[in-house]
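Renewal narrative, Specific Aim 1. Our central claim is that a sequence can be written position by position from structural information alone. The example that follows is taken directly from our test logs and has not been curated for this report. It begins with the structure tokens describing the chain, in the order in which they were read.
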């Protein structure tokens, strides 16, 4: 088969996957959830009142006046002046239904909302839902009644699988862009804060999804069962997170009871498996979320001591994804229909 025909085949499979997402209404379900979050962002209001500065002067009547307007005081300095350390900054949610007093200021209050949207809503709940909802794409494609029509043609099976996988990843990318761009614009219009660092969430979220979808794709080709894909992938994620945590705990605390063989096994497991905790740290570093969410001490200590290389961690996770897709292609090539 020549290259143009091969590329057209892969492109057709990509489009067919998007068509499948539309036909199953999965595209519109995920789009609708993003719209709900975008509407929530339109309800956010943030105020940034000026605080009293540190150096008062007295007017002709002996009344303190403050110069350097806009200079912020620390919480301790505010308390020493008998002022509320929370100041007058407000973060309003739901068009005023809920109001949070904050000492962050307007810019940081909006970043706080962005971090939780990208980290929790999209980064945890969103990825889990995406893995669950896309788990059926490959098993349905591999059903004998549908696959025999395609596999009987003179087209390499790996090309069909590649097109299907790229279609799922394109679907995930489109939905991620809609979510991030939509919430960024909504928060910007409602608060006046447009923070471009938020866009780093797009490649980080896509990386996280790609790595674990590769395992789901391998299980799909192996078992052709949507249910097995879902449960196996979720269990695999828990195992990977546990290995990630164990490795960083070992390098930080250096427990004396572990033998060199055990330490070596932990390192091998860490580098061979995906690293969801490291991907969360990549998210924290790229979006500069320090101070906006709780951190795991072992992870932060290992990173500050130079015992974690986030760049190589991302490369190793992508290599794992490539290996899983390769295993899936080999398994599909050997499958009987």
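The sequence written for that structure reads:
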């Amino acid at each position: 088969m020549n290259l143009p025909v091969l590329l057209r085949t892969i492109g057709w499979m990509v489009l067919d996957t998007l068509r499948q997402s539309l036909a199953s209404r999965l595209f519109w379900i995920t789009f609708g959830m993003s719209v709900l979050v975008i509407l929530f962002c339109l309800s956010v209001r943030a105020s940034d009142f000026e605080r009293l500065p540190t150096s008062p002067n007295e007017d002709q009547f002996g009344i303190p006046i403050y110069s350097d307007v806009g200079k912020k005081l620390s919480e301790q300095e505010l308390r020493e002046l008998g002022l509320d350390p929370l100041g007058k900054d407000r973060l309003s949610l739901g068009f005023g239904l809920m109001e949070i007093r904050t000492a962050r200021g307007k810019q940081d209050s909006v970043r706080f909302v962005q971090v939780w949207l990208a980290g929790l809503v999209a980064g945890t709940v969103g990825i889990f839902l995406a893995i669950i909802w896309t788990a059926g794409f490959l098993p349905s494609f591999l059903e004998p009644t549908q696959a025999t029509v395609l596999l009987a043609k003179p087209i390499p099976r790996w090309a069909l699988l590649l097109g299907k996988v790229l279609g799922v990843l394109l679907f995930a990318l489109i939905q991620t862009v809609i979510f991030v761009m939509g919430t960024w614009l909504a928060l910007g219009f409602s608060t006046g804060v447009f923070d471009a660092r938020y866009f780093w969430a797009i490649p980080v979220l896509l990386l996280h999804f790609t790595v674990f979808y590769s395992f789901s794709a391998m299980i799909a080709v192996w078992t052709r069962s949507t249910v097995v894909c879902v449960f196996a992938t979720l269990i695999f994620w828990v195992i990977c997170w546990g290995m990630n945590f164990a490795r960083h705990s070992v390098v930080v605390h250096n427990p004396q009871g572990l033998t060199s063989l055990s330490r070596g096994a932990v390192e091998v497991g860490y580098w061979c498996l995906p690293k969801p905790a490291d991907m969360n740290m990549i998210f924290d570093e790229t979006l500069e979320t320090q101070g906006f969410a709780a951190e795991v001490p072992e992870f932060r200590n290992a990173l500050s001591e130079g015992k974690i290389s986030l760049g190589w961690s991302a490369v190793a996770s992508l290599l794992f994804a490539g290996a899983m897709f390769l295993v899936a292609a080999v398994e599909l090539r050997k499958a009987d229909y």
